[in-house]
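Onboarding guide, step 5: your first structure request.
Type a short instruction followed by the sequence, for example:

Predict the 3D structure of this protein.
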Amino acid sequence: MSELSKAYVSKEAEEKWYSYWQENNFFHANTHPSKKPYTIVIPPPNVTGILTMGHVLNNTIQDVFIRWRRMQGYETLWMPGTDHAGIATQNVVEKSLMKDGLRRHDLGREKFLEKVWSWKEQYGGAIIKQLKKLGTSCDWERERFTMDEGLSNAVQEIFIRLYKKGLIYRGKYIVNWCPKDHTAISDDEVNYVQAQTSLWHIKYPIKDLQEYAIVATTRPETLLGDTAVAVNPNDERYKHLVGRTVILPLTNREIPIITDDFVDPSFGTGMVKVTPAHDPNDYWIGERHNANMGQRHLMVPINIFDVSAKINENAPEKYQGMDRYECRKEVVKDLEEAGLLLKIEPHVHNIGRCYRCDTVIEPYLSDQWFVKMKPLAEKAMQVVQDGTIHFHPDRWVKTYEHWLSNIRDWCISRQLWWGHRIPVWYCVGDETCKIECKQPIVTKHHPDACPHCGSTNLRQDEDVLDTWFSSALWPYSTLGWPQDNPELRYFYPTSTLVTGPDIIFFWVARMIMTGLEVMGDIPLPDGSKRTQSSQLVPFKDVYFTSIIRDSQGRKMSKSLGNSPDPLDVIAEYGADALRFTIIYLAPLGQDVMYSNDKCEIGRNFANKIWNAGRFLLMNRTQLEADGIERNDASGDLHLDLADKWILSRLHSTTHELNTSLDEFEINHASKNLYEFIWHDFCDWYIEMLKGRLYGGESNDVKIIVLNRALSVFDSALRLLHPFMPFITEELWQNINQRKEKESIMVAEYPVKDDKWIDKKTEDEMAFVQNVINAIRNIRGELTVPPSKEIQIIVKFTDASKEDVMQKYAGYFQRLARVTNIERLGDNAKPKHSASAVVEGGEIFIPLEGLIDVNAERERIQKEITRLQGLYDSTQRKLTNESFVGKAPKDVVDKEREKLENFTASLEKLQKNLDAL
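The system replies with structure tokens like these:
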């Protein structure tokens, strides 16, 4: 123990105690058969990432749950790690190479990957260091990386298992292609943005007729790859044209007019161009046509784009090499000159963009690897619907169900070099190869020879797996799967997942799918088989965090410049202040309106707690200096109303807090704590305590009363620790002599004791507080000097209220300077008195002798006149349609708020004037 400094210095406490926790291994978890495990896996941030306010919210919530359960006696494991972030990391390294005039192809695959690993070792994982500044209590000894040896083995294992079950396959399909990153991305990685574009109506000449097929398209450049015009089979307007051909403009190719049920007769002319290589719907039209027509009339897709979305050799020579948008302008110009452009209409529709680089996605026909999702989705849907897994808030269940009900196969191959390379080889032998040699060889290790022809001329698939493929294994691959081991048996399933709702499909659903698929092979800790879905799922509860927005309601982003650096905020306000503020502002399922100045909430709270601790310790030091021995066994000796009330509030708050955390109402929990510590303990209990410490009671009583206050403070610190770990450790270490390696983070978390909960005492104290507040308000409004003692006259229909006031008259004397309490009986209201209504009764304060009544009347009248002028001016502004219509919304809102404040102030002043 040491004397507390006048002010809390957050930087010193943070550095000291984080080192202390790590040195004493408090974050590390082991298998303890006698203890119940509680496990959280961190959503692995990108290895390229830096700390954002979203990370602050997400990781603070995780740390609250972990610290709370650790103090409750659970064996807590918070598994940390980072994601290799395929596209993002490769882009960072490629940009670095470009500064030296190099491209990855100049180095070759092996040398480039050496560069990436070198970059990762030098710069990657900065976010982990930043998370430590926040106070996160992860088991850093277990930190994993999605491309470390163990996780890479898990990725290969599950790929092979799913392939053998027929759930992974290779096929030529339309995929979402990013022309900038030169890779396919999954449906869930496409952001759709509504855009104002055009609808071009184009005339396709029908062969041997003086007629045209009129088609409408938003992408006229793709007509160069058209293979048909389609109509609905039930559209009577075009039945005579079915089977004929049209001359494709600008190419002079003949393409057929076909039928398909997909065509909407009411859209445009009811005729659509079919481009199977560049539109997913057209692709399936082509597939259905080929299936129905047989080999003689196959519709072969024509791919007119290269990997950068430039026109390739399959289009007329004039357009080859053009960018897709340049080609669009040229095609429209040529159609107009040929008299084949009927009209152009404005059109609004959704355009898909790459979620990483915002490039417009190109539907692209290519060979890719896919996971069959429907067989996996059925089980994943069931475990959420039957309550095996709970979502918080539960409204996300509908979103989850909708996505799984409409799920499509997942494209898992990426045309990158950085990532888990697909464990597939192909035989590229000679003319002696057999037909079977075309089958992929799926194995973890490079095969010695082709199993069909014996050739050693083999090549590995060039593609890597989608980053989300390895992330889908995170809850069990980080624990050593596919190897059976004690830690995997003990810590799986994990307990709680805290994540953003934006990755419910990317990550949450896929973890559920893979967990259900593979974890049946791993026994339970007692060696028995996992047979129930609750033993297979990767977690029991999913907490979806809020979105952090700025004070104007805009989502935080670097481009808007409204995303503060959390490390700067920590430097200014302290980690505890940031942690508490972000939780305090984040109701479950609602967005957070954040600005740095709101961290005053947390900083002021920290200062309030610090000052309370300092006051208690200074008084104990003084009593001990006076020769009073410390008596920690205070029990129920010398209890007054304040003691009984604070003990009841402590145990009530403890119950409410544990219930809120059990129900994932972490924001409610923070508000309960704030209310108890700031208002109940600091504002009221300590103020009431001063009367006893500085009054006429004996020193023996004073030390008992003080130690009881310190005991309550100890419990309050333990309740608060998961939210504000640094300041609570600093104070807890000082309020009592601690042993070596003792820490609040492994101290027992308080539990309620019903014997101390006393509703009658709480009600009586609430009444006393209301009366004192009413008296203080009157004194403040009428500027009665604090040194002036007053008398009050009370009138309550419930006589027991008057009894309570007499019973606790000492509190009114100490806290409101009340020297005498009289009962009014049936007499009229006292003359020249101010009054307040409290719980159905009235309290009067005679003012004669306290203030100069005439001078006060004059002062109030002047203030009313001044405020009325301001009110009238603001009212005129708000009735001016030009001002309301043209001024920014926040300016108008401020004027409205001013008007409300003027109204309230005028009402209060008029009431005071009437009292005089």
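Each response can be followed by summary notes, for example: The first helix runs from residue 10 to 23.
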